[in-house]
Specification:
The protein is an alpha/beta fold and 381 residues long. It contains 12 helices and 14 strands. The strands form 3 sheets. An 8-stranded parallel barrel has the order 1-2-3-5-10-11-12-14, surrounded by 7 helices. The chain has a two-stranded antiparallel sheet with strand order 6-7. Helix 4 links the parallel strand 4 and strand 5. It is globular, with a radius of gyration of 21 Å. The chain starts with a strand and ends in a 9-residue tail after the last helix.
């Protein structure tokens, strides 16, 4: 049963000349003053969501994006700041790109944020998908096997740091603590100071290719997926439930999952699609070259795989694949109730702020959503 609605903001500024025929992403350049608009956007969004029945503002960590699409380098820092200006809203990391961190620094920062906000931060981990940032920080990404190996060891350290009063770790990449003398004795273990006070820490990770599902299910990490075709969602949700079962966790289909959609609310599906089109197209101008089009063809093959489409999607594709929702409020309510039937364990749904959509237009859309859609899912046993 769906219980919570959230929003994902990846950190874009106001982009001019958006759409399929607009400015090429690689030609976009913005001043530092323009790029810092991201934080005003986040504040305006957080304040409206705080009073509107939303559960969490999820945000994404990225670096060096002079193009203006994803401009938040530190999610714990921004989430802690936004929590000081709101009352109830939670702030989620979608996601801390762990290979760009020392795992203990990431764990320390989150722990302090957990304490300062009274438990209003939600922890998330990811491996990264942009070589410019991950490789610049000195970690592998192009070598996916090396990236995965590093990430999994880092997550192991973070889990120890959160959950054990003292711990040690000796692996391929990290030797914690080093075997050195300290104040007259030999170091054998360390303690994270501070540790989170709200335990256990909920941890979320993206499901993009599906290759990490077995790992996150085994570790008890929850899974998020957004803008995926309905066949991809079914594959991911089923694979997670089955992997959790093999790890000794019995879950209802959809449990420990969060599902995200692109969206536009209007009187008709056609009107919504046309208003959404430039923002939808702007998104895929930037993201499609990274391989982030998770649709399937009639045979269930992911786009980009041999024999399946490899083109940039149109808004019609997204609506057909049920990755983007367009239409009146009752269409959203009907769709979410169908999801509840198919995935009875699903409790979390989030909306993605389409790149290129002005803040004022998004806030207007969220006001409709909070007034006309969220109440249909409140007060149910």
């Amino acid at each position: 049963m769906i219980k919570r609605f959230s929003v994902l903001y990846v950190g874009q500024i106001d982009l001019e000349n958006v759409g399929a025929d607009g400015t090429d992403p690689d030609s976009r350049r913005y001043s530092n003053e323009q790029l810092t608009q991201t934080y005003d956007n986040a504040m305006g969004l957080a304040k409206q969501m705080d009073d509107s029945g939303f559960h969490c503002l999820w945000m994404a960590e990225h670096h060096f994006q002079r193009e203006g699409y994803e401009c938040i380098p530190n999610l714990t820092l921004l989430g802690t700041h936004l929590a000081a200006h709101t009352k109830n809203l939670k702030f989620g990391a979608a996601f801390n790109i762990v290979p760009m961190w020392h795992p203990l620094r990431l764990a320390e920062d989150f722990s302090l944020g957990d304490i300062l906000t009274g438990g209003r931060l939600i922890f998330g981990v990811g491996r990264g998908y942009q070589a410019r940032e991950v490789e610049t920080f000195g970690s592998p990404l192009i070598d996916q096997d090396a990236n995965r190996e590093l990430f999994e060891e880092q997550v192991e350290i973070i889990l120890k740091a959160f959950n054990e009063e003292s711990f040690s770790h000796h692996g391929k990449h990290y030797n914690i603590p080093p075997d050195i003398p300290y104040r007259g004795y030999q170091l054998k273990d360390i303690t994270l100071v501070p540790r989170p006070t709200h335990l256990p820490v909920d941890i979320w990770q993206p499901m993009t290719s599906g290759r990490s599902i077995e790992f996150i299910a085994k570790k008890g990490i929850k899974g998020m997926t957004a803008l995926c075709g309905e066949k991809v969602v079914e594959q991911f949700f089923t694979a997670y439930r089955d992997a959790a079962q093999e790890a000794g966790r019995s879950l209802t289909l959809g449990q420990d999952m969060s599902l995200g959609f692109g969206f536009y609310i209007a009187d008709t599906e056609k009107e919504a699609m046309e208003k959404l089109r430039p923002f939808h197209d702007e998104r895929y101008k930037w993201f499609a070259p990274f391989g982030l089009v998770r649709y399937t063809d009639e045979e269930g093959r992911m786009w980009g795989s041999p024999g399946a489409p490899a083109r940039t999607p149109q808004v019609e594709d997204g609506v057909q694949q049920k990755a983007w929702l367009c239409g009146p409020p009752e269409h959203f309510i009907e769709t979410f109730k169908e999801l509840e039937e198919k995935y009875p364990g699903l409790e979390d749904v989030f909306l993605q702020w389409p790149e290129g959509m002005p803040l004022s237009e998004l806030l207007s859309q969220l006001e409709i959503f909070s007034n006309e859609i969220i109440p249909a899912f409140n007060g149910r046993s």
